[in-house]
Design goal:
By secondary structure, the protein is an alpha+beta fold. The protein contains 3 helices and 4 strands, in the order ββββααα. A hairpin with a 6-residue loop joins strand 1 and strand 2.
């Protein structure tokens, strides 16, 4: 028997319109905690926005910070800790803080 391997190479160029705006159908996300790429098939991942509050008045300022957590982090029961650290200590990942 002969085994034939066929390799397909995919172009990694991005689709842009005339105004140089990205118009891809899928733009991959990265986990805010681990900097891992969140794949399209990761159904356990979540993304949400945390609103900023003015400390003097206690009112919502209109600004928010988007946090994406991978399913890997949620599976290991670390998402609560990750969100707390990201919100209180900034948006740096835990891997760079160590």
């Amino acid at each position: 028997r002969n085994l034939v391997l066929v390799f397909a190479y995919k172009s990694f160029s991005t689709m842009q319109n005339e105004n140089k705006e990205i118009v891809d159908l899928y733009i991959p996300r990265k986990c805010s905690w681990t900097n891992r790429l969140i794949e399209a098939k990761d159904k356990a991942s979540v993304q949400f926005a945390v609103g900023d509050i003015d400390p003097a008045s206690g009112l919502f300022t209109g600004d928010s910070k988007t946090i994406a957590i991978a399913g890997y982090v949620r599976h290991h029961s670390e998402s609560d800790m990750a969100v707390w650290h990201l919100h209180t200590k900034g948006t740096r990942s835990a891997a760079t803080q160590k």
